[in-house]
Amino acid sequence: MIDKTNKLFDVFQFFTSDNKDYLRNLAVDNVIFGYHEKELKVLLVHNPYTNPWMLPGGYIKKTEDVETAASRVAQQRTGLQDLFLKQFKVFSAPGRNKDPHFTPAVLSEITGKTIDKNHWLFDQIATVGFYTLVEFSKVSVDGSSQEEEVKWFDINDLPPLLHDHDKIITEALKALRHHIYHYPIGYELLPEKFTLPDIRILYQTILGKEMDDRNFARKLTSLGIIEKLEEIKHTRGHRSPYLYVFNKEMYNQALDQGIFFS
Amino acid sequence: MIDKTNKLFDVFQFFTSDNKDYLRNLAVDNVIFGYHEKELKVLLVHNPYTNPWMLPGGYIKKTEDVETAASRVAQQRTGLQDLFLKQFKVFSAPGRNKDPHFTPAVLSEITGKTIDKNHWLFDQIATVGFYTLVEFSKVSVDGSSQEEEVKWFDINDLPPLLHDHDKIITEALKALRHHIYHYPIGYELLPEKFTLPDIRILYQTILGKEMDDRNFARKLTSLGIIEKLEEIKHTRGHRSPYLYVFNKEMYNQALDQGIFFS
DNA sequence: GCAATAGTGTCTGTAAGACAGTATATT
DNA sequence: AATATACTGTCTTACAGACACTATTGC
After folding, report:
1. What's the CA A244/C1' C3 distance, rounded, in angstroms?
2. What is the pLDDT of residue A13?
3. Is B66 on the interface with A (CB under 8 A)?
4. I need a surface site. Which of A1, A182, A198, B22 has the fewest CB within 10 A?
């Protein structure tokens, strides 16, 4: 017997509404990549009363476009504002949002209401996939004040995921890697001042391969998108590296025109 | 007074159905590019009883994904089969499918039925944009047997278009140009045997700029994606060009790995 | 001195970009 | 001969890719 006084019931208050202000068969899901300690992370959310982890996502109001919905959802769930969210693919395989553990019968029992088997919640839903890159330290992962837990996972060590969210993450990573080969990255992921090893390891982490440090530095400096400072970041036990900053003008120009990274 | 015996009425038989087998707030639109006489064309359709030309598009069944829907729509409207349709963007601006000439009142008058102002037809609809490239000669543009007229338009000489279809075409062209810089094209657009000027002018037409004939030939042959035949295509008034074919293996490899065209 | 990491210079091969002259066909 | 288009070769320069040694810091 399910306890109707728990918070799950509140969640389903929304589910059992008619949802008429939202697009019916379309949603958004955000793959939020963060970089930390030489590892590429993905931000996932977890409703403490249901099982699989999932991407931060949600429905789209009829008065907003999908980009706005993706931003809104990201902010609601993670507190992140003004993200550069990039649309990369629509996921629409028939039955992609079917879940054998979540049926009209189960919902009826939980809510005590009669649930139509054609209820919108069990209808086919396509989702627009977005990805973004964030500086890890900007995100305060503190889900305790909300009904949902929010947590970073290593890209290579993901938990079981809801529906086809594993596939969405795989495709997002593919799109991100395509992006990195043709446009500069790092501005959203690194602190204002960073070292050459910092940015090189970031590239290596995302691309999943080693890069020659000399050729890498030459490439970025000759494009003019990073500039060396006279400052040094003090480390211990070995030589301390110089600090660099992005030249935003050249960086934006490279974003516009595209570059070629091999 | 509107004549209810005309074919427009048949079209609206569909519109006034409940449409329950289709996703409610999502559709697909195809930008079908064709190449002919050094001009880049776009295939548009026209319902003879309503005014603006529009992209071939349609609704998505709940039992199919968006790619299948786009293929189905392309085949229904144009007879084209097995197209490589590439998803490039979702268009979802609020009100994008509003049309001041097409309202519940107008529809009521035409059909003689009472039309709810919340009818799905007037609801917000997002659309997934696809583009494709086809060999012009493969398409028989013969709309006389159908209720809709189908016609090629020069990319630089488009008629007024329905909703935001002009924007969809602009974005499709942008996506196509991005594609051509990173992957080979031509296989779907040129006849089996073609000349060097043929393929160079195709590139020039899509990119909208001149390219050096010597460097262009060197690039494609050194990549191994085209091969010279001993045959000659006989022309008049000047030297006749050699014929070339694609090396499909190298072509596919270039599609997989990506190339760089400057 | 040793360990650990940062930083820099050079060579070589390849490919891009610029460019001009010869070949073929028609009138 | 004149015209129109096709075809090809060379030079220069820039960049990618490979590679090895020196510098700094702490122990």
Report:
1. 26
2. 55
3. yes
4. A1
Query: Which A residues, 145 through 164, put their C-beta within 8 Å of a C-beta on chain B?
Result: none
Give mean pLDDT, residues B212-237: 89
Instruction: Between B262 and A24, name the one with better pLDDT.
Output: A24
- Check residue A91 and give its pLDDT: 97
Nearest partner of A31 among A55, A4, A5, A65, judged by Cα: A55
Given a contact cutoff of 8 angstroms between Cβ atoms, the answer to whether B52 and B162 are in contact is yes
* Interval B60-114: pLDDT, tens: 999 999 999 999 998 888 788 888 899 999 999 998 888 777 777 777 777 777 7
The strand D neighbours among B residues 193-232, by Cβ under 7 Å, are 195-197, 213-215, 217
The reply to whether B181 has its C-beta less than 7 Å from any atom of strand C is no
Distance CA B134, CA B156 (A): 18
Three-class SS state of B102: coil
Confidence of residue A7 (pLDDT cuts 50, 70, 90): very low
Residues A132-143, mean pLDDT to the nearest whole number: 74
Angle between helices B196-207 and B213-223 in degrees, nearest 10 = 100
Query: Lowest-pLDDT range, A114-118, B9-13, B159-163?
Result: B9-13
Mean per-residue pLDDT, A177-190? 88
Interfacial A residues in 68-97 facing B (CB < 8 Å): 87, 89-90, 92-94
A110 and A7 Cβ atoms separated by less than 8 Å? no
Q: Is A242's CB less than 7 Å from nucleic acid strand C?
A: yes
Report the SS3 class of residue B113.
coil
Calpha distance A75→A61 (Å, rounded): 15
Strands B226-232 and B242-246: antiparallel
A209 touches strand D (CB under 7 A): no
Would you call B126 and A66 a contact, using CB atoms and an 8 Å cutoff? Answer: yes
Residue B127 has pLDDT above 50, yes or no: yes
Cβ separation A62–B94 shorter than 8 A? yes
Q: What is the pLDDT of residue B2?
A: 38
Q: How far is the CA of B6 from the C1' of D3 (A)?
A: 58
Mind telling me how many Å the CA of A243 is from chain B's nearest CA?
Answer: 32
> Per mean pLDDT, which of A164-178, B16-30, B110-124 is the most reliable?
A164-178
Instruction: Confirm or reject contact between A174 and chain B (CB < 8 A).
Output: no
Buried b (16+ CB within 10 A) or exposed e, A103-121: eeeebbebbeeebeeebbb
The H helix count followed by the E strand count for chain B is: 7, 8
Other Cβ atoms closer than 10 A to A236: 5
Nearest to A211 by CA among A220, A20, B50, B162: A220
Q: How far is CA A142 from CA A78, A102, A135, A149, in A?
A: 9, 27, 16, 8
Residues (155-184, chain A) with CB within 7 Å of strand D atoms: none
